[in-house]
Design goal:
Elements (H helix, E strand, L loop, with lengths): L8 H48 L6 H85 L1
């Protein structure tokens, strides 16, 4: 009997490429989210430190200096808000990408199961064919032995 050939091997390969691409994109988004969270942490630390420096000096502060510090704190709060929005956006995108990666993995597994079933059916057919051949040989031997 012929060797088993999975006729959808090229489709399986394509699904494997898609799965790998989706997993790579997922990893990239996880890295981006991690960097964004680190950036947010750094901004929040800077805000706390700046507020402590402003409040903790105890020395009189000129109005101009006070206004500059307030503007800086406001800009810092704006950057924190932007970072928080970016993180929220990345988290939404990450959830969608996780779903795409799961679907790509499921599509590949589904094709693998189909290939396994076809391989098992092929092996069963080969065994059946071998059994028929053995039975025919036994019958031929029996027929020859009766003629003699």
């Amino acid at each position: 009997m012929k060797k088993f050939v999975f006729k959808l091997a090229s489709v399986r390969h394509q699904r494997e490429v898609v799965r790998d691409r989706e997993q790579q994109r997922l990893a990239e988004l996880l890295d981006a989210l991690d960097r964004a969270r680190q950036q947010l942490d750094a901004l929040e630390r800077e805000l706390v430190e700046t507020q402590q420096r402003t409040m903790g000096t105890g020395a009189p502060i000129e109005a101009k200096e006070l206004r500059l510090r307030a503007q800086y704190l406001e800009r810092l709060r704006g950057r924190i808000q932007t970072a928080q929005n970016s993180i929220a956006s990345l988290e939404r995108e990450l959830a969608q990408q996780r779903q795409r990666a799961i679907e790509a993995e499921q599509n590949l597994k589904m094709l693998d199961k189909l290939g396994e079933r076809q391989r098992a059916a092929h092996q069963q057919a080969a065994c059946h064919e071998a059994q028929i051949e053995a039975d025919e040989m036994s019958l031929l031997r029996l027929a020859r032995s009766r003629r003699s």
